[in-house]
Write a structure and sequence with these properties.
single chain; 3 domains; two-stranded antiparallel ribbon; 6 helices; elongated; mainly alpha; Multidrug-efflux Transporter Regulator, Chain: A, Domain 2
């Protein structure tokens, strides 16, 4: 089997050699065999590097990618590993989308705003209502917590 240097492996997948060394240092890739101090990789590292690139494009963090490669029992298939991590990542993406849509609505409202003073600003008025509602919710939750505690004592 032909071995390749870190430079050749990096070139084959369109990465910098420093990226491969980084993936080794954070525990995603196992340490390679060394010949006269130089890293030597077999062709299987190319599939691993491509899988890392796909995971990064899907939004996985370095920690999540490390878990994808090293955080499951050895017999766990790549597809089962992916499914386990993708379910959680999809929830995170849905949350990000909801936040982004809220940001978009606020920006669009701001584009339609024609107020001349802060006192007349619709965005600030809406924000004040939202924060007042959040404070009311927190107070009502505190009251129900106190009531629940007093009932459990008595």
């Amino acid at each position: 089997m032909t071995e390749m240097t870190v430079g050749a492996a990096a070139k084959a997948v369109g990465l910098r050699p420093s990226a491969i060394r980084y993936y080794e240092s954070v525990g995603i890739l196992p340490p390679p065999r060394r010949v006269s101090g130089q890293r030597r990789y077999d062709a299987s590292v190319l599939d691993c590097l491509r899988a890392i690139q796909v995971a990064k494009e899907a939004g996985f963090t370095i920690g999540e990618i490390r878990r994808l490669f090293r955080g499951f029992p050895l017999r766990t298939s790549p597809s089962a590993r992916w499914r386990a991590l993708a379910r959680q990542k999809l929830r995170e993406v849905d949350d990000m989308i909801a936040r982004a849509l809220g940001m978009k609505r606020m920006l669009e409202d701001g584009l339609r705003c024609g107020c001349l003073t802060l006192e007349d600003c619709r965005l600030l008025a809406r924000s004040a209502k939202l924060s007042t509602g959040a404070r009311r919710f927190d107070r009502s939750r505190e009251s129900s917590d106190r009531l629940r505690r007093s009932r459990s004592r008595g």
